C-alpha cells in the first residue's frame, strides 16, 4: 500500500485500539511503566523484523535518528500520562492538536508547500476538528491538560523528523530508534513506582506492545508517501474512532457537534485519499 492518506487512517484506527488498552492498563499500572513495556516489546519485535528482512543499521544520519527517537519517547510518555489522568476523549483531542504544530514546522524545516486542492480540503478537516475540540466547553484545563498539549508538540517534531529520515532510512530502522529510545527514557521514570503486573495487566501490556507497533509501522509508512501536514490532519479521524469505541464499550453517546465534526473529517479524508490516487494514476 502506497497511499499515505489511507495508511494514516489505518494507523489512527490501530492507535485508537491502543488508547483503549492503555486506559484500561493505567488503572493499576503507572503510565511510565506502560510506556516501558509498550516500547521494549515493540523494540524486540522490530529488531526481529529487521534481522529477518536483512535491514542494516545505518552509519549516517544517526543524530537525526536519535532526535526522532527522543521526540517520540517524550510524546509517548506525555501522552500515556495524559491518558491516565484525564478522560480518553480529552487526551485524544489534545494529542491531535499536533497538525497545527506540524503546519508551522513543515514550512520552516521541510520547506514543504501544499497543493491548491489540499489547501481547499484541509480547512474542512480543521473545521471538523474544531467542532470536536469544542474549546469553550473543554473540561480539563489543568497541568495534566498542559502535558497533553506538550505531547502534541513532541508528536509534531517526531512527524517532521520522520519525513526527513524517510528519504534515506528504512521504515523499520526509524521505528527501532523510536522504540529503543523510549525504552531507555522510561526506565528511570518508572524505577521507583514499579508495579508487578497481574495476569490481566500482562495481557493488556503485551497487546499494547503488538498493536502499537502495527500502528507505528502504518504511520511511518504514511509519512514516507505523503506531505507531513496532510498526514497529521488526516489523523484527526482518530478522534472519531475513539468516540466509536466509547459508544460501543462504555455507551458514551457523541453529541451533535461531535457527529458533525466526524462527518467533516471523514469527508476530508476521503477527498485527500482520492486526490492522491488520482495523482498516482497520472504517472
Key traits:
283 residues; single chain; 80% helix; mainly alpha
Short description:
By secondary structure, this protein is mostly helical.
Overall structural domain count: 1
Average pLDDT confidence is 80
Q: What does the overall shape look like?
A: globular
What's the number of extended β-strand segments? 0
Number of discrete helical segments? 12
- Quickly give the structural class: mainly alpha
Plain-language structure description:
The protein is mainly alpha-helical. It is globular and about 45 Å long. The chain has one domain. The protein has 12 helices and no strands. The longest helix has 27 residues, at 199-225. It is found in: Endomembrane system. This is EamA domain-containing protein. Keywords: Membrane, Transmembrane, Transmembrane helix.
SSE layout:
Layout: H1 4-25, H2 31-53, H3 62-85, H4 88-95, H5 98-110, H6 116-133, H7 143-165, H8 171-190, H9 199-225, H10 228-234, H11 237-250, H12 256-282
Organism: Paenibacillus elgii
Subcellular location: Endomembrane system
Membrane topology: Multi-pass membrane protein
Amino acid at each position: 500500500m502506497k497511499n499515505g492518506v489511507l495508511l494514516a487512517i489505518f494507523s489512527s484506527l490501530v492507535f485508537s485500539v491502543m488508547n483503549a488498552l492503555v486506559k484500561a492498563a493505567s488503572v493499576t499500572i503507572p503510565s511510565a511503566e506502560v510506556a516501558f513495556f509498550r516500547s521494549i516489546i515493540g523494540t524486540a519485535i522490530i529488531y526481529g523484523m529487521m534481522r529477518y528482512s536483512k535491514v542494516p543499521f545505518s552509519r549516517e544520519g544517526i543524530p537525526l535518528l536519535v532526535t526522532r527517537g527522543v521526540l517520540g519517547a517524550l510524546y509517548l510518555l506525555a501522552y500515556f500520562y495524559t491518558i491516565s489522568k484525564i478522560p480518553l476523549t480529552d487526551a485524544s483531542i489534545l494529542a491531535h492538536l499536533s497538525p497545527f504544530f506540524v503546519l508551522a514546522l513543515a514550512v520552516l524545516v521541510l520547506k514543504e508547500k501544499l497543493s491548491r486542492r489540499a489547501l481547499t480540503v484541509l480547512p474542512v478537516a480543521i473545521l471538523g476538528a474544531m467542532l470536536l475540540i469544542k474549546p469553550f466547553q473543554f473540561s480539563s484545563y489543568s497541568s495534566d491538560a498542559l502535558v497533553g498539549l506538550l505531547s502534541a508538540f513532541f508528536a509534531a517534531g517526531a512527524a517532521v523528523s520522520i519525513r526527513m529520515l524517510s528519504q534515506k532510512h528504512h521504515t523499520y530502522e526509524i521505528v527501532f530508534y523510536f522504540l529503543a529510545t523510549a525504552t531507555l527514557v522510561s526506565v528511570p521514570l518508572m524505577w521507583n513506582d514499579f508495579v508487578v503486573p497481574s495476569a490481566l495487566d500482562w495481557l493488556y501490556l503485551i497487546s499494547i506492545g503488538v498493536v502499537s507497533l502495527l500502528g507505528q509501522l502504518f504511520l511511518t509508512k504514511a509519512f514516507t508517501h505523503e506531505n507531513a501536514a496532510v498526514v497529521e490532519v488526516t489523523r484527526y479521524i482518530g478522534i472519531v474512532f475513539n468516540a466509536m469505541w466509547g459508544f460501543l464499550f462504555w455507551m458514551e453517546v457523541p453529541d451533535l457537534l461531535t457527529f458533525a465534526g466526524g462527518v467533516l473529517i471523514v469527508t476530508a479524508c476521503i477527498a485527500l485519499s482520492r486526490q492522491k490516487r488520482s495523482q498516482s494514476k497520472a504517472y
